[in-house]
Specification:
It comes from Halalkalibacter okhensis. This protein has about 100 residues and is mainly beta. Helices cover about 5% and strands about 55% of the residues. The protein has a single domain, classed as Jelly Rolls, CATH 2.60.120.
Length: about 100
C-alpha cells in the first residue's frame, strides 16, 4: 500500500492517491483509463464521489447511474457498488468514517 499522498497502482487501468485524512473523514483520488473497472464491493462507510473528469457508469444496489464531469454521486453505507470508466477520467471519493482498510 502506498504512503499517504503518493499514487498507488491498483491495476493496469486504475491508480489512486489517498489524501491526508481527518479524524472522521477522508478523501481519495482515483484515476481511470478508458474501460477501467472498480469491482463491485460494499463497506459500512458513507461515500460521496465527485467526478473531476470523465464519464462513469456506476452500479449502486442494482441500479445503473451515469455520472459525468462536475457531478456527484452519494453511495449509502453498505450499498453494493462498482464502476466502469466510459472514458478516461478521475474521481474524488470522500468517506466517513475513515476507511481504516485503506489506511493500513
Amino acid at each position: 500500500m502506498a504512503e499517504i499522498g503518493e499514487w498507488e497502482v491498483v491495476d493496469a487501468k486504475i491508480k489512486r492517491k489517498i489524501h491526508q485524512p481527518g479524524k472522521q473523514i477522508m478523501m481519495m483520488e482515483v484515476e481511470f483509463e478508458l474501460g477501467g473497472v472498480g469491482a463491485e464491493h460494499s463497506h459500512p462507510h458513507e461515500q460521496f464521489t465527485y467526478v473531476l473528469a470523465g464519464t462513469f457508469d456506476f452500479h449502486v444496489d442494482g441500479k445503473r447511474v451515469l455520472v459525468k464531469e462536475g457531478e456527484t454521486l452519494y453511495i449509502p453505507s453498505n450499498a453494493v457498488h462498482g464502476v466502469t470508466a466510459l472514458e478516461a477520467g478521475t474521481l474524488l471519493d470522500t468517506f466517513t468514517p475513515l476507511r481504516e482498510d485503506l489506511l493500513k
